[in-house]
């Protein structure tokens, strides 16, 4: 399976930064790795016109089609900008009240409109595999097993902390997510790892056998992000 790298820019960057992102990344010729860029909503137009390599994702989606939902963005609007991937269930969104039920509805709406959800799951220091299993099962409750989905294992305690689990620890969870999915008839679902991935940690994260990486902070340093992309592209 070709490795997938997803950049989650979160609420960072400006016009100048995103112009540079497209300019520099368009020059990149990768043979094997694929990448998806998830900017804030307001910068999507920059990518629609200028992205030539890589694909476009977004950091959230409304669970509704249209209507009186102030501040939300629909699948139809996103697709007008060429968005194909959507991060759903990020712990930073869960922590502001997003429930498993709402996540499941967002996953359903994305899959129902030909978008690929990147569903984030992860534990804090006090919870373990059972929580992750339950997050996985609930997220896919409204879709069938022919749906195209991606999972990202993101331990909350590793996000933005410069602390990463060992390869073995990541492997245990990634294998568990895959097993949970297989038991429900979802086969060959890619599972990424995210949480303090940077130029010094990406190799050991990949050694876990995950199918790619979700990169937050390190995606804001363009040279570092390109180093990671090239490194993953040459990863054996
Ligand atoms: C994230 O929040 O999705 C993430 C991976 O962040 P960071 O790489 O900064 O830990």
Structure, briefly:
By secondary structure, the protein is α/β, with parallel strands linked by helices.
Describe what this molecule looks like in 3D.
This protein is of the alpha/beta class and 236 residues long. The chain has 9 helices and 8 strands. Strands 1-2-3-4-5-6-7-8 form an 8-stranded parallel beta barrel, surrounded by 5 helices. Strand 7 (191-194), helix 8 and strand 8 (212-215) form a beta-alpha-beta unit. The protein is globular. It binds phosphoenolpyruvate.
Can you give keywords for this protein?
236 residues; alpha/beta; 8 strands; binds phosphoenolpyruvate
List the helices and strands and how they pair.
Elements: E1 4-8, H1 15-25, E2 34-38, H2 44-50, E3 55-58, H3 75-80, E4 85-88, H4 91-94, H5 100-112, E5 116-121, H6 129-139, E6 150-153, H7 167-183, E7 191-194, H8 202-206, E8 212-215, H9 222-233
Parallel strand pairs: 1-2, 1-8, 2-3, 3-4, 4-5, 5-6, 6-7, 7-8
Helix pairs in contact: 6-7
Look at the helices and sheets and give the structural class. alpha/beta
Strand count: 8
Q: Helicity level, as a percent range?
A: 25-40%
The set of bound ligands, ions and cofactors reads:
phosphoenolpyruvate
List the total number of helices: 9
What does the radius of gyration come to? 17 Å
Q: Summarize the helix and strand pattern as letters.
A: EHEHEHEHHEHEHEHEH
What distance separates the N and C termini?
Answer: 12 Å
Question: Low-confidence segments, ≥5 residues, pLDDT <50?
Answer: none
Strand % is 15-25%
What topology, given as strand order, has the largest sheet?
A: 1-2-3-4-5-6-7-8
Largest sheet: 8 strands, parallel, barrel
Mean pLDDT reading: 96
Basic shape: globular
């Amino acid at each position: 399976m070709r490795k997938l790298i997803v950049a989650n820019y979160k609420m960072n960057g400006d016009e100048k930064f995103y112009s540079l992102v497209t300019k520099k990344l368009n020059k990149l010729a990768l043979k094997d790795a694929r990448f998806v860029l998830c900017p804030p909503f307001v910068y999507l137009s920059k990518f629609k016109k200028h992205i030539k390599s890589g694909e476009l994702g977004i950091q959230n989606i409304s669970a509704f089609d249209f209507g009186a939902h102030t501040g939300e963005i629909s699948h139809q609007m996103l697709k007008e900008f060429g968005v194909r991937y959507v991060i759903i269930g990020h712990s930073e969104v869960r922590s502001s009240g997003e429930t498993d039920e709402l996540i499941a509805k967002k996953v359903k709406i994305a899959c129902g409109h030909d978008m690929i959800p990147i569903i984030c799951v992860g534990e804090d220091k006090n919870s373990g595999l059972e929580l992750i299993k339950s997050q996985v099962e609930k997220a896919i409750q409204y879709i069938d097993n022919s749906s195209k989905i991606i999972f990202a294992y993101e331990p909350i305690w590793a996000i933005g902390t410069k602390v990463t689990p060992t390869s073995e620890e990541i492997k245990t969870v990634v294998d568990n997510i895959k097993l949970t999915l297989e038991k429900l008839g979802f086969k060959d679902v890619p599972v990424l790892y995210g949480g303090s991935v940077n130029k010094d940690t990406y190799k050991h994260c990949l050694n876990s056998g995950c199918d790619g990486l979700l990169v937050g902070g390190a995606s804001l340093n363009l040279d570092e992000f390109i180093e990671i992309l090239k490194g993953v592209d040459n990863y054996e």
